[in-house]
């Protein structure tokens, strides 16, 4: 009986894990970035107070037997597992017929998981918006097993990005990853991904850049914003989304977001160039605050 219960729990986690299939995304391309109250803490701060840029995005690094291992070893402490308790708004109808203005508002409890990573030693974490959507509570677990309560600073539903903040215990700095320039990468560049697939914890996968600037949706709105994805054959499994895509210099050049349903080796990553746009929006408060 105990094993059966554990299996059902695992299946529940898998079904709610942070990974979005591209045919599921339905967000208006004109949707704005939204700020939450913790964003006020960024007032008057500089870009270097929110993220750290890498001096070297790509290099002709010799691909020896332990090259990837060394990159992963340095990146691991900066990558986190995200566990979310959700409350999804629903309407409960007592009649089997859908009628306008009927239904009792309710919140459906649930759970979800995903990945994220520190972009600054003060505790700023990047992840996907779909990972923390409808969150009632967000817990972040670091590689050493420490558990932290996270606050939402800002979200971008179009680029599927979320900026979270963790208060450092005793003001100790967190290990972080420096931001690389995604415009400098090319097809064939070696990359790794680190994430929390299926809730198993830190997992490293490796591959190459398959394509850059991939547009996946019909761009009907001239004023809309659209992601120019990095395509990679690096595995992005349920729970891995929100984790970083990292070059062999140790720089993150994107946030792993999606995979084509029922495919193998076709994953998509939001490039750092567009994440930078999101972060600059947050710093400039060029957004719609959430009350």
Structure write-up:
The chain is mainly beta. The chain has one domain: Thrombin, subunit H. It is built from 3 helices and 16 strands. The longest helix is centred in the N-terminal third of the chain and has 14 residues, at 2-15. It is globular and about 65 Å long. 40% of the residues are buried.
Helix content: 10-25%
Biggest sheet character: 9 strands, mixed
* Count of extended strands: 16
Query: Separation of termini?
Result: 46 Å
- Mean pLDDT figure: 85
The Rg value, from CA coordinates, equals 19 Å
By CATH reckoning, the class would read Mainly Beta
Number of helices: 3
Structural class of the secondary elements?
A: mainly beta
**Low-confidence blocks of residues:** 1-24
Task: Quote the CATH topology.
Answer: Thrombin, subunit H
What can be said about this structure in brief?
The chain contains three helices and 16 strands. The chain has helices at residues 2-15, 67-75, 272-284; strands at 20-21, 34-35, 79-92, 104-118, 124-127, 135-141, 147-149, 151-156, 161-165, 190-195, 203-214, 229-232, 244-247, 252-259, 267-271, 288-289.
Which features does this protein show?
single chain, 291 residues, mainly beta, Thrombin, subunit H, nine-stranded mixed beta sheet, six-stranded antiparallel barrel, 3 helices, 16 strands, globular, disordered N terminus
Question: How do the strands and helices of this protein lay out in sequence?
Answer:
Elements: H1 2-15, E1 20-21, E2 34-35, H2 67-75, E3 79-92, E4 104-118, E5 124-127, E6 135-141, E7 147-149, E8 151-156, E9 161-165, E10 190-195, E11 203-214, E12 229-232, E13 244-247, E14 252-259, E15 267-271, H3 272-284, E16 288-289
């Amino acid at each position: 009986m105990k094993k059966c219960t554990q299996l059902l729990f695992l299946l529940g986690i898998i079904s709610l894990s942070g990974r979005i299939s591209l045919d599921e995304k339905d967000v208006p391309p004109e949707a704005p970035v939204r700020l939450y109250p913790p964003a006020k803490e960024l007032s008057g701060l500089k870009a270097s107070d929110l993220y750290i840029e890498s001096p070297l995005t790509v290099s002709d690094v010799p691909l020896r037997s332990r090259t990837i291992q060394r990159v992963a070893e340095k990146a691991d402490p900066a990558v986190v597992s995200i566990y979310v308790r959700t409350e999804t708004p629903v309407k409960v109808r007592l009649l089997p017929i859908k009628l306008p203005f009927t239904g009792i508002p309710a919140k459906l409890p649930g759970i979800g998981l995903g990945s994220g990573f520190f972009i600054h030693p003060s505790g700023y974490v990047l992840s996907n918006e779909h990972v923390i959507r409808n969150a009632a509570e967000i817990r972040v677990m670091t590689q050493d097993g420490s558990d932290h309560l996270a606050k939402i600073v800002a979200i971008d539903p179009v680029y599927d990005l979320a900026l979270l903040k963790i208060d450092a215990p005793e003001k100790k700095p967190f290990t972080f990853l420096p931001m690389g320039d995604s415009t400098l990468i090319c097809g064939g560049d070696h990359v790794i991904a680190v994430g929390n697939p299926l809730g198993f914890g830190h997992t490293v996968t490796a591959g190459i850049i398959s394509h850059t600037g991939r547009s996946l949706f019909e761009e009907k709105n001239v004023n809309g914003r659209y992601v120019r994805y990095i395509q990679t054959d690096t595995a992005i499994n349920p729970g891995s989304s929100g984790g970083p895509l990292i070059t062999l210099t140790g720089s993150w050049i994107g946030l792993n977001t999606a995979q084509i349903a029922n495919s193998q080796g076709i994953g998509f990553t939001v490039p750092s160039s567009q994440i930078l746009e999101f972060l600059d929006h947050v710093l400039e408060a060029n957004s719609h605050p959430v009350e």
